């Protein structure tokens, strides 16, 4: 199933996308409350049963012009959990930029982005020179946790995944380098485009074999595959859940391939008027203007 969040007549509700059409199940009587908030939906113990009951029909079909797409989880309950330097080619380009040897990390590098940085498809990424003059792009596969758990065993990881989405981990490199840590440069308001949908895990049998790419103004900047991850999704969830409880609705960004702006010669950064498109196979395209 492909689902997300949207504004309809001033209210945030869950939509289902099927064959290019949009449906608002909350317009029907069955489980109307269940379909109004996606975090409530994900955490519902009878979620799968209720999702299976929905069948697209014209009584709840709306035009794209009737809704405003939001991030699938418009305001996550917690910060976005992120993996740093999880593709070796990205490690190489970062090391070359810094003039050091590339080294594969022995354990996942973990940081977070503020939940207030999340925006939806089509929402402008703010380019405020008073905040940053070095906004960079990073296409990433996002994993949505579907079942709360702690100390999750490898064989149970799939039981705790709800689905997958696209994340653009916008990074203010000047802030990142000045403060010598990730958080402030990764957490600018509007710096986490997400969407356009969450695709349930049953529709993506192997999330470790997805092509991903990023384009700026139609020009390819990043291309790669999730099979290039150093620490795969299973390892990430096992590692995180050893020390923290992962809750239904948590969002994990799994890292980016090479091709980011700061490591280019000369460096390239986003500016007002640009359009950034992040694409992942089987999920779609996440497009945002820069203003």
TrEMBL record:
According to its UniProt entry, the function of this protein is described as: Decarboxylates OPET (5-oxo-pent-3-ene-1,2,5-tricarboxylic acid) into HHDD (2-hydroxy-hept-2,4-diene-1,7-dioate) and isomerizes it to OHED (2-oxo-hept-3-ene-1,7-dioate).
Short name of any one Pfam family annotated for the protein? FAA_hydrolase
Assigned keywords, A-Z: Isomerase, Metal-binding
Q: Which organism is it from?
A: Leucothrix pacifica
**Signal peptide stretch:** none
Which InterPro entries does the entry link to?
Answer: FAH, Fumarylacetoacetase-like_C, Fumarylacetoacetase_C_sf
Its pathway is: Aromatic compound metabolism; 4-hydroxyphenylacetate degradation; pyruvate and succinate semialdehyde from 4-hydroxyphenylacetate: step 4/7; Aromatic compound metabolism; 4-hydroxyphenylacetate degradation; pyruvate and succinate semialdehyde from 4-hydroxyphenylacetate: step 5/7
Reaction catalysed by this enzyme: (3E,5R)-5-carboxy-2-oxohept-3-enedioate + H(+) = (4Z)-2-oxohept-4-enedioate + CO2; (2E,4Z)-5-hydroxypenta-2,4-diene-1,2,5-tricarboxylate = (3E,5R)-5-carboxy-2-oxohept-3-enedioate
Q: What is this protein called?
A: 5-carboxymethyl-2-hydroxymuconate isomerase
Annotated Fumarylacetoacetase-like C-terminal domain residues: 80-291
Protein's GO biological process: carboxylic acid metabolic process
Give the domain of life.
Bacteria
Q: GO: which molecular function terms?
A: 5-carboxymethyl-2-hydroxymuconate delta-isomerase activity; 5-oxopent-3-ene-1,2,5-tricarboxylate decarboxylase activity; metal ion binding
Family affiliation: Belongs to the FAH family.
